[in-house]
Write a structure and sequence with these properties.
- The structure is a single chain.
- This protein is mostly beta strands.
- The protein is built from seven helices and 43 strands.
Length: 815
């Protein structure tokens, strides 16, 4: 009887066990930590994971089921599974935190896209390889942005020059040096990438809240530290130390950074033999204090010294054709000693009047003290190279076509003090936002120019353009001997400016389509005085507008249009002509600007990508024409030209390699000017074609070994002619700029790979790597040296080549 009772009880369980099987497994997060309390269910059955993340559940045998894993702090995951074994199966899953999903949503900021701003990840900036690593180095991989000098952080945007770009750090405008002539003198950019939190860039069509320039805006925000940390970087090119800390919890934060730069590695790779002793030092501090929930104070300061000591010894450059090779040999005497001291301080107060209105007041002062002193003599020999393979003198100069010398002298000193006081306001009401501001600026410039050049050809002085030529030794010359170039000027100039803006922003819905619009206007009044000259007050008005729409389509696309009447009141550098004279009545350059763009976000290979395209047109008037020599811009201080620029920029960025953001950029540009109705000619920034690749990769079996490629191709720009020449007679173009930099680094430890014991436990981050600059050792040229041939009376343009192939070692750590 008992046997029948046991059979009655256990027979159903036996039958059930033949139709089901046992499923076991574990549930963990991305850090391999067990997750407790995960609900695992299918149909009406289910269980939960224990404190070790383990679970077990009986599921049907040979039947496909949909198993759901859910937890309040993690994304819900579903797995389709079929049990094919009666002995039980295992299934372990990894859940992704909901916090990570929220971060992804924040990164895709439609408001920035609607405003035409490109947001650049600071991690990309730090990883990108380049001779001048930093924010500007990444900008030059974007379409429409170019620079043919790897030693310079200056850049041209869509046909504009270096002076047409706005740069802001925490809402405060920063300036480029006045007397810098070459990229190797620049040293460090004002922007310190070790302190940056956010980077926004607009290549045109920007809002009225930004200043009065013609080309672009770079808007940088420094970060407020949340933890105590010390970051150290070092390489053969210099190093940096950055300290950050929340000094008083929820009250006071501080971040300070010291940088040192030495360009000797690059300069010594050029064809000129030199004694080169540069010192580029920079120290920055950003303090932020929360006095209350509604009142905050910020202080930003900068101190930098650039000491550039340059003593050229000799130069040997071969050029020409295979059939007619030529060689220029130069021997130098003398030296150049330049010093650039910069002091900058800015104090701002942010007050939240209520939940809708925020007021910000800022006062700042910028002082630059620049000295440019040099006496350099050069004796040159231009000759034909022996190409006879059987000759004993094969490869040597066998016949001199030109022999001469020149002496360059300068004692130039400049002291500029720029003071600003500004107030801004932001009023929010639902989806409508109103912004306004007013700014007072005073510029005090003291400039002393003592510069001359004497050119001697075969023992006789060469006279400057416009003077009667001498024909010695065939005819006697009794006229005065004058320098080829001679500038002796002293300028004490004051510029007072008042500017302001007002703009409306709104986000709304038009049927099922999301729409953004922005309408604003700027006004700018200025007066230039000094040197005993009187000038009249001038005022410009600059209306601007933006419109963007995201259609309710299956495809993720956004379309935008922006434009306006942009003006650029002249700076001191623009007021000064070739001879150092000041035109106090110079008018503002103006540009009617139109930009049409689109963004298309999509998935390819299961990974996110975005295609961005923009077409633009600029119609410029009151153009102040100029020439460019390396990074030195010399204006004619007139308004005698009109100009235009048009083109198209395309960029495809995304995860070509899983987890690493890379992009490909293509740009086409055409810009021409018409001086005094003489006809259209190419402007100095007429760079027709741009192609760039920024690529990041890693070794699949060794993910901590990463590689970075930075490849740029820019077609040649006009600028191969002498600075004194008529640009209508010389439209020579420089060589195309081609450069590839590659870096390889190994990450020993970072936020995703921490050690609790051993030597590496002392570091939060530690990496080491090698960087190979100009990987293919391509000879790029930035300017030409012009040498006269005494026999043919011709001038030869000898390229001044940039840096060659360089290997650099880099070490970075965070404690």
């Amino acid at each position: 009887m008992k046997k029948l009772l046991l059979l009655f009880i256990f027979f159903p369980l036996f039958i059930f066990s033949q139709k089901t099987t046992l499923l076991k497994g574990s549930v963990k997060n991305k850090n391999n930590e067990p997750i407790e309390g995960v609900s695992i269910s299918y149909k009406q059955s289910g269980t939960t994971s224990d404190e070790n993340g383990r679970y077990q559940l009986r599921i049907p045998f040979k039947e496909e089921i949909s198993l759901k894993f859910s937890h309040i702090s993690y994304r819900t995951t579903t797995r389709n599974i079929t049990a094919k074994s009666r002995n039980g199966i295992r299934l372990s899953v990894t859940l992704i935190s909901n916090t990570e999903e929220l971060e992804e949503i924040i990164v895709r900021d439609r408001k920035k896209e609607a405003q035409g701003l490109q947001n650049i990840n600071i991690k990309t900036v730090k990883n990108t390889v380049g001779a001048n690593a930093g924010v500007e180095n990444v900008l030059m991989t974007l379409p429409g942005v170019s620079n043919n000098n790897e030693l310079s952080t200056q850049y041209n945007v869509r046909g504009g020059n270096f002076d047409e770009n706005l740069v802001y750090v925490n809402g405060i405008q920063v300036y480029r040096p006045f007397l810098i002539r070459s990229g190797q003198q620049e040293g460090l950019s004002f922007i310190n990438p070790n302190m940056v939190q956010n980077i926004n860039f607009s290549a045109g069509g920007f809002q009225a809240k930004y200043g009065d320039r013609l080309s672009s805006v770079l808007d940088i925000t420094y970060r407020k530290p949340k933890e105590v940390a010390t970051s150290i970087e070092g390489s053969l090119l210099g190093g940096s130390v950055t300290f950050e800390a929340p000094i008083i919890e929820d009250k006071l934060t501080a971040i300070s950074s010291f940088r040192y730069r030495d360009n000797s590695l690059f300069v010594n790779s050029k064809q000129i033999e030199t004694n080169f002793r540069p010192t580029f030092i920079d120290f920055q501090t950003f303090l932020s204090y929360n006095a209350s929930d509604r009142l905050r104070f910020n202080l930003l300061s900068n101190f930098s010294i650039n000491s550039y000591n340059f003593q050229p010894i000799s130069r040997r450059t071969r050029f020409g054709t295979v059939a007619n090779p030529l060689e220029l040999t130069v021997f130098y005497t003398g030296q150049e000693e330049d010093n650039y001291l910069t002091l900058f301080g800015a104090f701002s107060t942010e007050f939240e009047v209520n939940d809708k209105l925020i007021l910000t007041g800022t006062v700042s002062r910028y002082n630059t003290q620049e000295e440019e002193h040099f006496d350099i003599g050069a004796t040159y020999n231009l000759g034909e190279v022996d190409t006879n393979i059987g000759s004993e003198n094969f490869g040597d100069v066998e016949f001199s076509q030109g022999i001469g010398s020149q002496l360059n002298h300068a004692r130039n000193d400049l002291d500029a003090l720029i003071t600003n006081a500004e107030i801004r306001g932001k009023y929010k009401s639902n989806r409508l936002q109103f912004e306004f501001g007013a700014k007072l600026q005073k510029e005090d410039i003291r400039d002393r120019i003592r510069e001359w050049e004497i050119i001697d050809s075969l023992g006789f002085s060469t006279r400057p353009p416009g003077f009667a030529t001498n024909n010695q030794p065939f005819e006697p010359f009794a006229g005065p001997i004058v320098p080829f170039q001679n500038i002796r000027t002293e300028n004490n100039i004051q510029i007072n400016r008042i500017s302001g803006f007002a703009q409306f922003n709104e986000r709304l819905f038009w049927e099922d389509n999301e729409v953004w619009y922005n309408v604003g206007v700027r006004a700018h009044n200025w007066r230039v005085s000094g040197n005993g000259l009187n000038s009249k007050s001038q005022t410009i008005i600059s209306p601007r507008a933006q419109f963007a729409i995201k259609p309710n389509w299956h495809k993720d696309m956004l379309f935008r249009a922006s434009g306006g009447w942009y003006s650029q009141p002249p700076s001191y550098r623009e007021l000064r002509d070739f001879d150092g004279n000041i035109n106090v009545d110079l008018k503002a350059q103006r540009s009617i600007h139109l930009v049409l763009g689109m963004d298309y976000s999509f998935e390819m290979w299961g990974r996110p990508f975005k295609l961005t395209a923009e077409a633009y047109y600029k119609d410029l008037s009151n153009v102040n024409t100029y020439t460019v020599d390396n990074v030195r811009i010399r204006y004619r201080a007139n308004n005698n030209a009109t100009a235009y620029a048009n083109g198209i920029d395309v960029r495809l960025n995304g995860e070509f390699v899983p987890g690493s953001d890379s992009w490909v950029s293509i740009g086409y540009l055409k810009t021409e000017e018409n001086q005094d109705n003489r006809g259209n000619i190419s402007r100095p920034t007429d760079q027709r074609f741009k192609f760039a690749i920024l690529f990041q990769d890693y070794v699949p079996n060794l993910p901590n070994l990463k590689a970075y490629l930075n490849l740029v191709y820019n077609s040649g720009v006009p600028g191969g002619s002498p600075a004194y020449a008529d640009v209508y007679d010389f439209q020579n173009r420089l060589r195309d700029y081609r450069r590839a930099d590659i870096g390889v680094s190994y990450i020993f430890t970072d936020v995703n790979k921490q050690y609790k014991t051993g030597f590496l436990s002392k570091f939060r981050e530690l990496s080491a790597g090698l960087e190979l600059f100009n990987m293919f050792d391509i000879q790029n040229a930035i300017t030409n040296t012009w040498v006269r041939d005494s026999f043919s009376k011709r001038q030869f343009g000898i390229p001044n080549f940039l840096t060659g192939r360089i290997l650099n070692f880099k070490l970075a750590m965070k404690l």
